[in-house]
Design goal:
Largest sheet: 9 strands, mixed
Number of helices: 14
Shape: globular
Structural class: alpha/beta
Mean pLDDT: 97
Strand content: 15-25%
Helix content: 25-40%
Length: 467
């Protein structure tokens, strides 16, 4: 049976346009847009009408970097696919791309099957997977081809975490060569993990055990060096490259230089690098542990370079790297040894609001907000125009956003399954009011009306930016 919804009176904002228009949703898709008050719009009938007067009507956010239930440092990320996707919906995100993990000695397929089992029937919103490649060998390389054919079109490698996820330059080159052939996109955690481990050992030997030393040993120069090396390896392989969670101005400079040379090199940053700094890592009484993530938070002066990179398109995407660990019982595993603090921050619920605050503060335009949070991640990872825009034929992933509502971010009111907020007490302007996922109300006027299992696995095509 056909179901129709009309969204009336809002300002529709996409990456390319802003227009006062009504939106017709039919059977889970956007059926039509028409200027408000025109005879075309007035003629629409529907079972449900959503009043968006004075509000923005925007595409649901696409968060291309989350880690639900990730095993790390002897524990697990505290959000399940059920709690994490529900929190994402509250924050106006309607698609996540999470990371399935290949364990060393195991196949890619085994890792992908395990993550499919974790997510199946649990998600409130749609989801896809990238594949973490921890063990490059001839079998793995063949599996990469098969996965691309099945809609898992991106593969993450790590220059960090020796003994866990780390790949050496030869393994990275082989994987990049393979992606150059099969159309996949290599995502890189670019930090020189071998050198960082030396600095960690030396810091601990000096008795430097507090959380702030996590930031001091993971030096910006070692992020820049690894970014440069990853770019050169991709150039040798003739492959595209996407560098995840860029935090340092020196790394942005490496990306800008590569893009100026016409290389298919892309960069992502995260809200924590735009809004937090080493000041947070240095908070007393072990509070700094809440802000331990990798790449680490940087001194505040790096923020200007990141905002500039987002404006000049040297950075194209803002994702969260949502990987929450509770302060009590997880982060405190590292009391007395910062290297044992689980790396990761909660943020999947905060991204759209923080980026709207960036619009209010004049860092970016409204359309750029939608571009870096919705349209570009959808294009980068082969989901556009099904996701990331409001246009006829697109999935009806739509957010009614109140640009004037004020809120105070807090662990008391957020929906992520973690006992602290990285943005505790921060006042922001703008708030999600109603969220549709494929035409179904998931948040209705600040009430959760969704359900586990509504979200479906979404296969992806290859990166839509490649020359």
């Amino acid at each position: 049976m056909s179901s129709r919804t009309v969204i009336r009176g809002g300002l529709v904002i996409t990456a390319s346009d802003e227009l006062h228009a009504d939106v017709l949703v039919e059977d889970g898709r956007i059926a039509a847009l028409a200027a408000a008050g025109t005879s075309a719009a007035e003629s629409w009938t529907a079972e449900r009408t959503v009043d968006a007067t004075g509000k923005y009507v925007i595409p649901g956010g696409v968060d291309a970097h989350t880690h639900m239930e990730l095993p790390f440092g002897g524990t697990f990320a505290s959000d399940s696919f059920e709690t994490g996707t529900r929190a994402a919906a509250w924050g106006g995100t309607t698609t996540i791309i999470d990371f399935a993990v290949q364990s060393v000695g195991r196949s890619l397929r085994e890792g992908l099957d395990a993550w499919n089992a974790k997510a199946d029937g649990k998600c409130a919103i749609d989801y896809g997977f990238h594949m973490i490649v921890s063990d490059v060998n001839q079998d793995t390389l063949k599996e990469m081809d098969l996965l691309v054919g099945e809609g898992v079109t991106s593969f993450k490698q790590f220059m960090a975490y020796p003994g866990v996820f780390y790949s050496d330059d030869g393994q990275i080159l082989r994987a990049m060569q393979r992606s150059a052939e099969n159309g996949g996109l290599i995502m890189m955690h670019a930090e020189n993990g071998i050198a960082i481990d030396v600095l960690v050992e030396q810091a601990l030997a000096r008795g430097e055990t507090d959380p702030r030393y996590h930031g001091e040993v993971r030096k910006a120069l070692l992020e820049a060096e690894a970014t440069h090396r990853a770019i050169k390896l991709a150039q040798v392989a003739g492959a595209p490259l996407y560098v995840v969670h860029v935090s340092a101005q020196e790394a942005v400079a490496e990306l800008a230089r590569a893009r100026d040379e016409g290389l298919n090199v892309f960069g992502e940053t995260c809200p924590q690098y735009l809004f937090l700094s080493t000041d947070n890592l240095a908070e007393p009484d072990f509070e700094g542990a809440k802000y331990v993530c990798s790449t680490p938070l940087r001194p505040m002066e790096h923020q200007a370079a990141l905002w500039r990179g987002l404006r000049t398109n040297d950075l194209q995407v803002v994702s969260t790297d949502h990987c929450p660990f509770c302060f009590v019982g997880q982060k405190d595993l590292g009391r007395g040894d910062f290297s044992k603090i689980p790396n990761g921050l909660p943020g999947v619920e905060n991204r759209m609001d923080l980026l709207h605050q960036a619009v209010v503060d004049g860092h970016i335009s409204r359309r750029r907000w939608i571009e870096i949070a919705c349209a570009t991640p959808a294009r980068m990872f082969g989901l556009y125009p099904k996701k990331g825009t409001i246009a006829p034929g697109a999935d009806a992933d739509v957010v009614i956003y109140d640009p004037h509502a004020e809120q105070i971010m807090s662990a008391e009111t957020h929906h992520m399954n973690v006992d602290y907020s990285a943005y505790e007490g921060r006042r922001t302007t703008g708030r999600v009011e109603t969220v549709l996922s494929r035409g179904e109300l998931v948040i209705n006027e600040r009430e959760f009306t969704g359900r586990a299992g509504h979200g479906v696995y979404t296969p992806r095509s290859t990166c839509q930016y490649l020359n």
